[in-house]
Specification:
The protein has 1044 residues and is an alpha/beta fold. It is built from 43 helices and 16 strands.
């Protein structure tokens, strides 16, 4: 049995392959390292050597590109030898490469020299793995390994299988590569497919760093003869080229998989393409890497100096255009305003959508990165996106400054509002005054007003679309809901630099710069040329006519360029003719679009849409559906759970096409790739893909077009059907708290849920039989503390269930109980009690008094009584739940143990210490067994049991428990797994009170000081706890002075 891992180990070696680094050329004045890594069954020398003996890395490249040191690296990647055994696999090979390259560069005083990697075939995956390993090294024994990632300017992948396709899964590609050397069969293929999933999971970390490198992808065009005697295209372009990268230039090599890295001379077409690519990359490598090392040194210095606040520049979450067309006037204006003066400087960039405000800001920061200690980028589209951006910034600060306690606490608690306040506090530090922060896409402002400042016309690009829209339009409702005042999210102290990009001209928080259309014809032609990859356009009359017709609109020019690149057979004259036809059709079918700018952009998108509809109907249907989701972050798993339902057997063509798209990742990638290739979507760089797939996003202007043009002919029935389908996708994917890091997925879903919610507010009714959809959205909103929306969703679910099933059906009662939970979250205890009592009465009747569902409501009623101080009633409820859980679930079920602990709390509050002790000891025994001795829940019970002993005068026993709880909290703290600082502060304060009772006032004061120091890191000095601890410290000090 052969697996992918086994392809990277060797068993015998009839030929000894040289291993390690070999310098094949070194210029005495070398300023750039080229490192080449061969693939499966490759050879450090022979892989790069043609039949005539020409080793192009040694004999050709230095002639065209001086100043190089060229190294090749050999490793054991044999597949069919049988004498020696070597158990190094791919990731161990990668670590070895990093180790050897680091040592060589250190010994030759070239530690900071730029690197360009060349990876052939599976050697490209070794390079990826090496960069992942290097990036993960921070400090300690392998800290120097990080130098490789920092110094890497670019990577040239040649025939590397990055992904599968709709036609050829990745496991099949691996098998094809292996089949060049060995005969493969179904069993081998099955194992390779299994290992391909493992490999993709391991390499998923590469996405987060790929934006740091200039990346080029070369693919083969000739088939390769394999061991079975036939010829195949081993790594097709769909696998070798990754979409979404700004520099993802595909390079066609007219050779087979083996010979695509062997060139007979400098006139070889393949060599010309490769060498020209390297010659274009090399000139900017030195400056970029020098700046990167300067930044790294500033960060390292800051890490060792608590008074420094430097962060490395990270623009990877901001989509980069292939080539920025300079707006020198605006850049100069921004620089004049934002130069450091010791006070707050704020620039407002305002203009229509698609004018390039984001790209202008990105370019400004890239050029002036050395002027700022940190550049923070926030998505200000709405408060949900903004809070997530603050959380991401907090995580970045924590990565470089792990000792900033208030950042640690906010991140570990996963509280978005605390992350906002923690980052603002960090920015407000007196010596932290050299940062720049970007609030991007603040398009729905509400500054001191009950209504948004921006009109719907501004949102849609100054069209009259809004005037014709219904007053209950869901988009308008959603905009009104998303409008917010940005000022609470700005740092408080009046220093630093702020950039806000917006469509609104009404924001007056700083100096305004209006971003208009491109006025220079050459700039428009430059955008068209860079996106279409066509040469000579500056002298092409048709190009001039086209860019004049597109009126200097950057987004329209980029869309036209993407189409011309994707359909090379279309001439500029033909495209111009299609554009004119599309313009007329828009005028006839959508007369409400009166803005020239909108009509120009919509016409280019219509041309692309009609072409996509012809070549890939599934992609076109996905575009239709996307209008009912949010424009940001659509990813595979969001659709796949819906597609897997057995009950989802609707025979409609649309449903079937969408089910095909979501049936597997390859089909989704194939559909989304078409939309990406024609410039309609991009990678969602602002989202995390730690647990699920990378998302895709579309520009807000494109999203508006999908709603009002692509779906213009949808009637009420069709609109309801698509809205229901989108809601089903969201509802099917909402995870419970049993899912690993469920909150990350829930947050990704929120904006899509809001779109569904807006449709409901706009009059879309799913029907009473779809109550479960409302119920799922209610669960999501309640989990995310959006109680008003949760209440509305559960209310809709309850109404539907009552209509269909009646008032006492289990589904109806589940919604009633859920409404009680929502009211509890809002502090509406009377309403919560009413819901719980109704649910309890119904569940007792329908499910029986000892059903787990009934007992859940009993326990919830106990919570309501407990929080209101009705301890006798709470005790009654908890005792009933306790007996029922023990009978139904067993003595150690977590739900039962929680009720035992709650009952202990009630007894303690009533002064029934013996009964409380019994409950806490029982809960402790069960939690130690089921959850472990250091679980936060176990430690909570230990602390509470200590309280009981303290009240009973058993001070020695109480001290032991408090110290045990404190030790457990400290262990959790060191492991960065503690979520709530209040427990450790409670224990420290309890130890202080106990020490005071024992007459150890100095020790008590010490514990109080420790507790207050911790409190000061997490809470305001005006907080109740901080003031209480200060009072106790002062009291202890007074008593100590009196004794002296």
């Amino acid at each position: 049995m052969v697996s992918f891992k086994k392809l990277f180990r060797r068993t015998t070696a009839p030929v000894i392959h040289p291993q390690g680094l070999e310098v094949v050329h070194e210029d005495p004045q070398a300023i750039l390292d080229i490192v080449a890594v061969h693939g499966l069954n490759g050879h450090r020398e022979k892989t790069w050597t043609a039949a005539n003996g020409v080793h192009w890395l040694r004999d050709l490249l230095p002639q065209n590109l001086p100043g190089l040191r060229v190294m090749t690296w050999g490793y054991d990647a044999n597949t069919h030898s049988s004498r020696q055994v070597n158990f190094q696999y791919m990731f161990q090979h990668a670590e070895q490469l990093v180790s050897e390259l680091t040592a060589r560069r250190k010994l030759t005083q070239s530690f900071h020299r730029p690197i360009i990697f060349i990876g052939h075939s599976l050697g490209g995956l070794v390079v990826k793995s090496a960069l992942i390993h290097s990036d993960a090294r921070r400090q300690g024994a392998l800290g120097e390994h990080r130098s490789i990632k920092i110094s890497t300017y670019g990577v040239l992948y040649i025939g590397t299988p990055h992904q599968g396709s709709d036609a050829v899964p990745l496991g099949r590609v691996f098998a094809d590569i292996a089949s060049i050397f060995i005969k493969t069969n179904d069993r081998i293929l099955k194992n390779l497919e299994r290992d391909s999933e493992w490999l993709q999971q391991q390499l998923s970390h590469y996405k987060s760093i790929s934006g740091d490198f200039v990346t080029k992808f070369a693919y083969e065009t000739y088939p390769t003869r394999i061991a079975l005697g036939k010829s195949i295209l081993v790594v097709p372009s769909a696998s070798a080229v990754v979409p979404g990268d700004a520099d993802a230039e595909p390079i066609a090599i007219t050779a087979d998989h083996t010979n695509m890295v062997k060139f007979n001379g400098n006139t070889d077409a393949g060599y010309i393409r490769i060498s020209e690519t390297l010659q274009i990359m090399a000139p900017t490598a030195v400056g970029v890497i020098q700046s990167r090392w300067e930044e790294e040194e500033r960060v390292n210095e800051a890490r060792d100096n608590p008074d420094r606040f430097t962060l490395p520049l990270d623009l990877s979450r901001v989509t980069e255009v292939p080539r920025f067309v300079s707006r020198e006037k605006e850049l100069s204006q921004m620089d004049a305003i934002l130069r450091k003066t010791g006070e707050r400087r704020t620039v407002i960039l305002h203009g229509l959508g698609g004018m390039g405000k984001t790209q202008l800001t990105r370019e400004y920061i890239r050029r002036h990165r050395t002027h700022f200690s940190a550049a923070l980028w926030l998505n200000a589209n709405d408060t949900a996106s903004l809070r997530l951006s603050f959380e991401r910034v907090a995580q970045s600060i924590l990565r470089y400054y792990p000792s900033v306690a208030y950042i640690v606490n906010a991140v570990q608690k996963q509280d978005l509002d605390e992350c906002v306040e923690a980052v603002k506090r960090w920015l407000d530090e007196p010596k932290n005054d050299s940062w720049v922060i970007v609030y991007d896409n603040y398009d729905n402002p509400k500054l001191g007003s009950t209504k948004p400042i921006t009109t719907r016309d501004e949102k849609l690009g100054d069209t009259a679309l809004a005037a014709e829209a219904s007053k209950t339009n869901p988009e308008e409702d959603l905009m009104a809901q998303q409008a917010y005042d940005i000022r609470p999210f700005l740092p408080n102290i009046y220093h630093g630099a702020v950039i806000i990009t917006t469509r609104s001209s009404q924001i007056k928080l700083g100096e305004c710069i209006r971003i208009t259309k491109l006025t220079e014809l050459k700039d428009s032609i430059e955008i068209l040329a860079s996106t279409s990859r066509r040469e000579g356009l500056d002298e092409d009359a048709d190009a001039s006519r086209l860019v004049q017709r597109l009126d200097g609109l950057p987004l329209a020019l980029a869309t036209a360029g993407a189409y011309l690149e994707g359909v090379p057979s279309t001439s500029l004259a033909q495209y111009l003719e299609m554009y004119e036809q599309s313009w007329v059709q828009l005028q006839q079918n959508s007369p409400q679009i009166i803005s020239y700018e909108d009509r120009a952009m919509y016409s280019t998108w219509n041309i692309s849409y009609l072409h996509i509809k012809g070549i890939n109907p599934a992609s076109a249907k996905l575009l239709h559906l996307w209008a009912y989701f949010d424009n940001e972050d659509l990813w595979y798993e969001l659709l796949s759970d819906w597609a897997s339902w057995e009950s989802n057997d609707d025979g409609a063509q649309t449903i079937q096409l969408l089910k095909e798209i979501a049936s597997n990742n390859l089909a989704f990638d194939a559909a989304i790739r078409v939309l990406h290739d024609y410039g309609l979507v991009d990678l969602a760089t602002s989202t995390s893909n730690r647990w699920e797939s990378q998302g895709y996003s579309m520009h807000d202007c494109v999203h508006t077009w999908t709603q009002y043009v692509v779906n213009a002919k949808a009637d009420k029935i069709a609109e309801t059907s698509m809205a229901r389908l989108a809601t089903e996708c969201v509802a099917a994917h909402i995870p419970t708290d049993r899912h690993a890091e469920y909150w990350i997925i829930q947050r990704r879903l929120l904006k899509h849920a809001d779109r569904c919610w807006a449709r409901f507010k706009g009059g879309i009714e799913l029907g009473k039989e779809y109550g479960w959809l409302y119920e799922q959205l209610g669960y999501l909103y309640n989990d995310q503390d959006q109680f008003l929306k949760a209440e509305e969703m559960y209310g809709r679910a309850l109404h539907g269930y009552e209509k269909i099933f009646g008032p006492n059906h289990p589904s109806t009662l589940k919604s009633v109980n859920a409404l009680g939970v929502v009211y509890m979250g809002q502090g509406q205890y009377a309403e919560a009690e009413e819901m719980y009592e109704r649910a309890l009465k119904g569940r007792e009747k329908e499910l029986g008094p000892d059903s787990p569902s009934t007992l859940e409501t009993v326990n919830n009623l106990g919570n309501v009584y407990n929080v209101q101080g009705q301890y006798v009633k709470a005790e009654e409820m908890y005792e009933r739940a306790l007996h029922g859980y023990e009978k139904a679930l067993g003595p150690n079920h977590p739900s039962m143990l929680l009720t035992v602990h709650n009952l202990g709390n009630v007894y303690y509050k009533q002064g029934l210490y013996a009964e409380a002790e019994e409950m806490y000891e029982r809960a402790l025994k069960g939690r130690e067994k089921e959850l472990g001795p250091d679980s936060p829940f176990t430690l909570q019970t230990i602390n509470n049991l200590g309280n009981v002993y303290c009240k009973q005068g058993q001070y020695a026993e109480a001290k032991k428990l408090y110290e045990r709880a404190l030790h457990g909290h400290e262990k959790a703290w060191e492991a960065e797994s503690m979520l709530d600082h209040t427990e450790v502060l409670n224990t420290l304060e309890n130890l202080g009170m106990l020490s005071y009772e024992l007459g150890k006032k100095e020790k008590a004061r010490e514990y109080y000081l420790r507790a207050r120091a911790g409190c000061g890191e997490f809470e305001s000095p005006s907080s109740e706890r901080y003031l209480r601890l200060s009072s106790k410290i002062e009291w202890c000090s007074t008593k100590l002075s009196d004794n002296n």
